[in-house]
What does this fold into?
Amino acid sequence: MNAVIRPLSHSGRPNPGRQRSENPSQEHVEAAFRTVLHWIGEDPDRDGLRETPARVARAFQEYFCGYGQDPEQILQKTFEETDGYDEMVVLKGIPFQSHCEHHVAPIIGRAWVAYVPNARVVGISKLARVVEAYAKRLQIQERLTAQIANTIEHVLKPKGIGVVIKATHHCMTTRGINKQGADLVTSRMLGCFRENPMTRQEFLSMVHSNHDQ
Ligand SMILES: [Zn+2]
It folds into this structure.
């Protein structure tokens, strides 16, 4: 398979400004991974590794496909016929895989996303897709949490939003201080989730009960 490496940009949108000639070719990317294999002490030409640089390049396209997705666009289609529904909408324990921007090591976790609608709601799968679009980039967990909350706030303009993320960082569990079983928990609460302790508590109790299952 001859996959094309698309140019990726920090804005999260395909980068139209860069000329094609400036972008690394598939060949260059594979050569770079070949160099890494050599550097760790391997023989990149042995049978088991011959296809590895191409496979790793394709895997990287999957890990970082979020740069080609526009999370605000994902939330554009909303529904207004809610018959005045103004209770909390919660999507619990959305699994995600991301990579830390310091070591390119996996971050494996779950996200809880809740909001109290203000006239408009969005298809529930769209919330999961927003998590995915930001997770499939190089991240730190704090920014991932804030980006999800801020995007939903910006597009849906709900009465409030809460996002909690619990994740294991492989840069901590498989290297460095080698601490197994340590989860990092981050949260961002906006609007009524920040101002109303009852709303926040209702959400956090769902986060807690889901985690214990
Ligand atoms: Zn890291």
In short: DSSP finds eight helices and seven strands in the chain. Residues 100, 102-103, 105, 169, 171 surround zinc ion (CB under 6 Å). Residues 8-19 have pLDDT under 50 and may be disordered.
